[in-house]
## 1
Amino acid sequence: MTVKQKKELILEGLECANCATKIETEINRISGITATMNFMTKTLSIETEGGQDLNVVLNNVKNIVNRIESHVIVKEKVINKGSKKTLILMGLDCANCAAKIENQVKNISGVRSSTLDFMAKKLIIEADSNHEMKRIVDEATTIVNKLEPDVKVIDNGTESKSEKKVDEASDEVSYKKEFIQLGVGGVLFLLGSILKLPDWAELSVFFIAYLIVGGEVLLRAIKNIFRGQVFDENFLMAIATIGAFIIGEFPEGVGVMLFYQVGELFQSIAVNRSRKSISSLMDIRPDFANLKVGDDVKKVAPEEVAIGDIIIVKPGEKVPLDGKVISGASMMDTSALTGESVPREVEAGNEVLSGFINKNGVLEIEVAKEFGESTVSKILDLVQNASSKKAQTENFITKFARYYTPVVVITAAAIAVIPPMVISGASFSDWLYRALIFLVISCPCALVISIPLGFFGGIGGASKRGVLVKGSNYLEALNDVETVVFDKTGTLTKGVFKVTKIVTREGYSKDELLELAAFAESYSNHPIGISILKAYGKEVDRGRIDTYDEISGHGTKVVILGEQLSSGMLKLMKKGKEVLAGNAKLMKKENISYDEVTAVGTVVHLAVDKEYAGYIVISDEVKEDSAKAIQSLKALGVKTTVMLTGDAKVVGEKVGKELGLDQVYAELLPTDKVEKLEALDKQKSPKGKLIFVGDGINDAPVLARADIGIAMGGLGSDAAIEAADIVIMTDEPSKIADAIKIAKRTKTIVWQNIVFALGVKGIFLVLGAFGIATMWEAVFADVGVSVIAILNAMRVMKVEKL
C-alpha cells in the first residue's frame, strides 16, 4: 500500500503573488509530488505519494524556492498539540549565531523540534510535554544569553498580540526605510528635471537617483536571470527603464522606476493590511489562561493547560479552552464563533467552548480538551488553510498568468523589431519605446494577488457570521446551487425530543415499558435515545446488558440479565430476556404484530421475547427559522428543496407542508438516503450543484456524496467538522442563505477585478502599440491597477449587510 506523506512549509518573506504561482507550478513538476501554495498565509503544502525520501523532497523544494525567490526563508510549519512556545529574540542580527542557537536548543532534553526564523527573530520550540516547557524555555534563554549576550528574549506564547505588535513595528521600520529611499530618489529626480544642467551632470543626477530608487530591482533581476527566472516584474522593469536610458529618456527612466516602486510599496502595504483585516475577523485566539494551582491562580499560555485542570475565567476574558463549568454563572458572548449577537447563559454543568467571551460572572471551568484539540484551534486551522483548496477561477488565473506574460514579451519583441524593418521611415527608438510599454504592462500581479485575496476575504467574512467554509472551491460552488436536500432531525427540527405518550399492552405498566426502552437505548447517542433516557431519569445499570446490537435504520436489540430490574419485573428478568426497540420496520422484520400509530411524532415500538409490549411517542419541534431559510433559498434561485428522513411518512409530510418544501421522502435507511440523493443529483443541470444539509451525527455518507456537504449545529462536533465541506456553527438553517449571499458577493468582486484588470491592461496595450500611451500610463496599468484591485477585494470582508 502506498503511504502518503504530508508536510507544510512557511515561506517567510514571500510578497510576490506571481512568484508564488511559479513556485507551486515548478514543484508540481516533480514526479510523485503534489504542491498547494496559499499566498495569503504563505503556506506551502507538500504531499508525496510514497517511496520518496521526505528530506530529499524538502531539499528540492527549498532549492526551487531559493532559485525563484532568494530572499525567502523556508521553514517547516510546527503542527502543535498544545506544547509549542514562540520566543522573540529582540536585537538578534547575526545569522550565524542564529543557526548556533537553533542547533543547541534542539539538543535540550524534551525538545521535539526548534526553528529559528532569523528574519522574524522568532524561536519556535515544540516540546514533548506542556509541563516541561518552563524548564526548556529557561534552558533556551540561557543558551541565547551565552551566545548573544545583548539579545533580549521575550516569551509571549504563540501568535499573541504582543508578538503581532513586534511584527507590525518591524514592518513599519521597513516601510520607513523604503519611504526614505524613495524620498531621496524623488528629490534628485525633481532637481534633474527642473535645473538646467550640462548633459554629463544631468545624466549623473538621474543615474544616481535611478540607483537609489531602482538598485534593488536591478539586483533582483540579475540574480533571477542567473537562476533562469527571466520573465518576472523585476526583469521587465529593469529592461524597460534601462531601455529608456539607452534612447536618452533619462527623466522617464527614473520617473517610471520611481512610480513603480511607490506603487509596489502601496501594494505591499495594502496586502499586509488586508491580511491583518482578515485575521482580525477571526481574532478569537485566547492569549492566556488563568490556571488554578491549589489556592493560587497562575496566568499561563493556553498550551500549558492539561485536560482536567481547573481554569478561572473573569468578566471580559475569552474562554481559552473547551470545558465544563463547575462553579459560577454568567452570560457568554458567542458572536466570535457563531455570529450570534444574543448572549448565551451558562451555569454549573454547562459546556463552554474556547473563543466565547465571558460577559459578567466569574467562572471555574474544568478543561475537557487540550488547546490543540479545542474548538477555537480547529476553527482557526480551518480558516487559515481554507484557501489552499483553490476555486476554478483561481486555477484559471494561475494558468492564464503562466502564458500571458511570455506572450506579451514576445509581442513586445515583435513590436520593437518588425515595424522598423517593414514600415518606411519608422524609427527604431520609437518602436522600442512602444515595446518597453508592453513590457511594463505585462505583469499579471493585479490578478494573481487580488483574486485569492477576494476568496480569502470571503471565507473570513463567512467565518465571522458563523459559517466555516473549508475551501475557496466550495465558496465558489455555492454560486451554482440548484438543489438543497435537508435531513430532518437536528437540521430543520430542533432535535430536542420529549416523550409525550406511552401506550402499553396488558402486563406492562408505563414505568416498566419506559425502563425497558431505557435499557434498549442505553448506548445510543441519537437524540431519540437520549430523550428516552432523560424521561427515565435514573442511572441504567449497563452491567445487566448481556448483548447490545444496533440495527441500522430500524432500532436496537438487547438481552437484559439480572434477578431484578424493578419490583414488578422479577419474573421477567430471571433468565434474561430479549428486548426489541425501534420503528415499525423493525417489528415487520421480526414478524411481530404491532399497533398502527398515526400520532405526529417519532414512534418507538417495544417487544419482549418477540411479544409486542407497547410503544412510546417522542415529539420534536421545528426550528423557528426553518421556514425563513426555505423562503430565502427560493429567493436566491434554488430550484428544488427536499427533505430526507427516516421518520414515519405522516411526520415527514407534516413538517414538509409546514415549511413549504418541494419534496419529502420518509422512512429511509441511511443507504436509502444515498440512493435518493444520487437520483436527485441526476435531475439537476450539469453545471448545477446539490447541497446536502445534515446534523453531522449519522449523515457522513450523504455529506460525502453531495457536491457540497453542510453540517448543521457543528459547533464542537468533531464528526461534523470532519465530514462536511461547510460547517454552520449554530443550529440555524438560515445561515445557508447567508453563505450563498457571501459567495455571490465574493464572485461579483472577483470578476470585477478580473474585468477591470484585463480591461485596463488591454486598453493600454493597444494605446501603447499605437504610440498613444506613455510609460507613465503603463506603470499605472501595472501597479496602479494592482492597488485598486486589492482595495476592491477587501470589500468582500464587509458582511454586516447581506
## 2
Amino acid sequence: MMVDEARTRLSGRSRRRGAKPAIETMASLHGQRIVGNGGSFNPLNPEGITAVHEVACELLAVTGLSEAPASAIQLVEAAGGRVSDAGRLLFPTSLVELAIKGLSRDFTLYGRAENTDLVLAQNKVYVGTGGASPQIFDMQLGRYRESCLSDLYDTARLVDTLDHIHFFSRPIVARDMADVRRLDVNTAYASLMGTQKHVFTSASNSQSVRDIANICYQLAGSKAAFLERPFLTLNVNHAVPPMRFDSDAVEVLIEAVRCGIPVSVNTFGQLGASSPVTIAGCVAQTTAETLAGMVLAWLVDEQAKAVFGPRPMITDLRTGAMAGGCGEQAMLTAAATQMARHYGLPSSTIAGATESKIPDAQSGYEKCLTVSQTVQAGANIVTQACGAQASLMGISFEALVVDNDMLGCILRATNPVDISPQTLSASNIAAVACGAGHFLGEADTYARMHSDFLYPGIADRSVIDVWEAAGSHDIRHVAAVHAKEVLEHHHPRYIDAKCDAILRASLPIELVM
C-alpha cells in the first residue's frame, strides 16, 4: 500500500518541493533514435582470429576464386595477382593485407532527413530491414500473397515512422515488374519515395547501376552532391560459395564503385551446405570470399566506401532448410562480425531471421536471440533485423511494428551505465533509508522517469483487469491496428514533382502515386 500511495503522490510531491529535473539537459528517450553500442561479445580469442585470418589468406592465395570476369582479372593481375592453371583468380597475401590496410574506415552513410545518418565507427550499431522476400502478409486477406511494387512503397513509408529501425534495406521483391531493369529502377525509386532514411537496394547489372546512380544524382542535385553525402548503398553478392565469383555481380560491384555509390560486399554461405560444417571453417571461408570483394572495390578506387558484409547462415542439416533463429546462428554471425572488427572495417551482416510465419512467441525469441548477439558483437549494419518471417520468405507489417519495440529495447540495453557522484548518490540513499523508506516520491525519481527510460510503443504493461477491459488483445493485434493507421495517413512523397517528372521521362518508373 505504501508503494501505491507513493506512486499517486509522486508527481505532486515533486512539484510541492519545487523540484527541478536532476538532468535538465537530457531529453526524454521517447521518440529518440537509439544507436547500439556493441563489441562486447567476442566468441573468437586472439589466437582464433589469427588462425581464421591465416586460413582466409591461404584460401585466397592458393585456392583462389573461379569464374572471375575479365574486369576482375585485369584489376588483380595489375596488382600482382594471377590466374592459376585451373583458371582460378589468386590473390597474393601481400595484396590482401595492403587492401585491408588501405580500405576506407569510419565513413558515414547519410539519410535525407535530420538524425538519420549511419556513422560507421567501430562498435556503433544500426538495425533495419532487408532481404528479398517474395511474399507479404496481407492484413486484409489474413494470409501471404506475392509482393508487388506498391507493397514495397507501403513498407518504406511504414518504416519511415518507426524510430528504432534506422535504415531501409529493400525487404521484398516487386514481383509485378516485367524485367530486371524495371525491377531495379522501381525498387530504388519506391524506396526513396517512401522514406528519408538511408536506403540499401541492389542492381542486376551495370546498366541498372547507372540508372540508380542517375536517380541519386537527380535527387541530390548533382553527382558531386551525392558523392559528398551518399544516401543509397548497393548490396552486392559478388561470390557464390564455395569460392566462386558471380560475374554479373562483380561487374555491378565495379560499376557501383566507379559511380561513387557505397557498396555492401556480401557473402552468403550456408554452413554444412556451401560452407564447411564447422563454425571455424565457415567463418574462414566466408572471410576469404568477402575479402575478395573488398580487394576488388579497393583496386577500383582506394577511396571506395565498401562495407565488409559476411552473412554465413545455418542450415538445419536434418531438412536442408534455413535455421536462422538458432543459437549456432548467433555464434556464427558474431564470429564473422568479429573478423570485420579485427580488420577495423565497417561491417554489415544479417540477424533476425525466424522460421515462424507470424510475429508470435517463436518469432520473438528467435529474433531477439540473434539480433541481441549481433548487436553485442558490434556489427555496424544489421539487416533483416525486423519484419521478416518464414525463413526470410515473407514480410509482415505487424512484425515490423512489433520488432520496432524489440529493437529499441535491445539497443537501449547496450548503452553504458552512467557512473558519477550524482548517479551513485550515497547521501540520497542514506536520507531515504532513514526517512520515507522508498524512492518513488523523490525529485530525482520524477525527473529521471522522463529522461532515463525507453517506454514501449505498443507492448502492454497494464494490469490484468485494464487489459481485459480493453479487449484482451495480444501484441500482434495492437501492431496491426498501428500499421493500418500509419498506412492510412502517412503518404510521403520524398521525391519532389520536378525530379519525379525528369526521372519518369528517362526511366521506366511504374510506381503509381
## 3
Amino acid sequence: MTKKTNTKQWIALAAMSLGVFMGLLDVTVVNVALPTMVKDFHTTFTNLQWVLNAYTLVYAVTLLIMSKLGDMYGRKKIFLGSLVLFVLASAVNGMASSLLILDIGRGVQAIGGAGMMSLSMALVASNFDGRDRGLALGILGSVIGVSSASGPLIGGYLVEHFSWPAIFYVNVPVGIIAVILTVIYVNETPSYGKNQKIDLWGMLLSAAGLFAIIYGLIVKESNPHLSWINIDVSGYLIGGVLILVGFVIAEMHVTDPMVNIKMFKKPHFIGTIIVAFALGAGIYSYNTFLTALMQNYIGYSAIQTGIRQLTISSWSLILGPIVGILSARYSKKWMISISLFLGGIGFLMMAHVISPTVSFAELWPGMVLMGITNGMVNPLLNTTGMEGVIPSEMGMASGLLNVFRQLGTTVGVVGLGLIQDTQYETYLNGHLGSINMPAAALTGLKKALIEAGPFSGHGIAFSTRVQQSDFAQEFQRVVVNAYDKGMSAVALTAALVVIIGGIGATLLLKNHVESTEIPIKED
C-alpha cells in the first residue's frame, strides 16, 4: 500500500525545486550581464568567456561524483551541503573585485549546482511514492524546463535595475529559504555505500574524461576556424574519449564501482539517455541562437526577448504537473516520442519563416511547439529514467541523465554554431564580391565579419561608419541574408536532432517498467 502524501512532502518538493531552479538558472543568466561586466571590469568579451565556461565545465565534470557521494552517504546530506556551497559562492561572486575571483567563484558555485541537480530527482523519488511520485517528478521537470529558459528574462531585469552583482546576490535569500526547508522537511535516504570504499580512480577518470571532451568542445566553439584535427581540439577530444574508455574498463573490475556499467546494457535506460542528449542538443542549445536572433537582428532588448521566450518556458509550468498525472495512466514512451516529433515540426516551421523581415508574430507558432516538447519531455524523462533502477543507484541514474543532457547542450551549441558559421561564410563569400564598393573596404569588412561571426555581424553591418557609405543598403542586405541562411540551417539541424531522439525513444523505451519500491527514512 502507498502512504498518503502529506503537506511536509510537498514543502520538501518546494525546497528541492528552489535548489534546482537556482542551479540551472545560473547556467544561462550570466549571458545578459556580460555587456555590463565588460564595462565594470574594463575587459573584453573574450576574457569574460570563462565566467560562462567555468560554470559549464565544472558543473558537467562533477555531476557524477556528487551523484555517487549522495548514493553512498545520504542524498539529503550531499544536497544540503551543495546548497550551502552554492549560496556562499554566489555571495562571493557578487562581491568579486576581479575576474580571477569571479571565475574561481563560478567554478565553486558549479560544484554546488551539480550536487543539487544530480540528487534532486532521486530525492524526490525517495520522498514520494505511488502516483504522487509521478506528479512530484513532473513538477520538478517543469522547474527544470522553466529555469533553463528563464535566464534572459530574469537576468535582463536584474541587470537593468540593479546591475550585474544582483544575478548572484538574489541566490542568497532564496538559498537560505531552501536550506531551512530542506533541513526541516526533506527526508534522508539510506547511506547505501557506507560500508563501501570510495572509487577514487573511477571519480578521477570520469572527471578527467568529461573535462577533456567538454574543454575540447569549448576550444572549438571559441575558435570556429580551428580544424577538428588541430591538436588544440583533437588532442582534448581524443584524449577524453580514451580516458572514458579506460574508465569503463576500470569500472568493470572494481568491487564497488562508481557507475554500475550494467545499467548501460538496458535498452530502456539507453533510450532515456538518447532523449536527454537530444533535448540538450536540440531544444536547449537552440535557445542560444534564438536569443541572438531576437536581440542582435530583430532588435529586442534582453527583457523584451525574455518576455517573448515565455512562449517556450511557460509550457513547462503548465504541463509539468499535468504530465505527472497523465504518466500514471498513459504510455510514457509514446508521450515522449510524439512530443519530440512535435518539436521537430516546430523547428521546421521556424526554419521556414526566417527572413530579413522575420518578427515574433511569425516565430511564435514554432516556439509554442518547441515549448510543448520541453514541457512534456522533461517531466517524463525524470519519471522514465527512474523506472527499473534499484534504490541504491537512483542518484547515479539521475546524474547520468543530467550529464548527457548537459553534454548534449554543449555539443549542440558547438555543432549548431559550426553549421551556422559555415552557411554564413559561404553566403558572404558568394555575394559580397557583387557589391559595388572599394576593394580595400570589401577586404577589411569581409575579414571583420568572418572574425566577429554571425552573432556580431549585424553590429558591423549597421555601424555608423558603414551607414554613411554609398554601399550600405546592399552590404547590409547581404549580411542579413547570410545570417538567415545560417539560422535556417541551425533550425533544420535541431529538427533532425529531436526527430532522431523521438525515433530512439520509439525503438528503445518500454511501455511499462516494473517500479522499484524506495524506502523512505523518516528524520
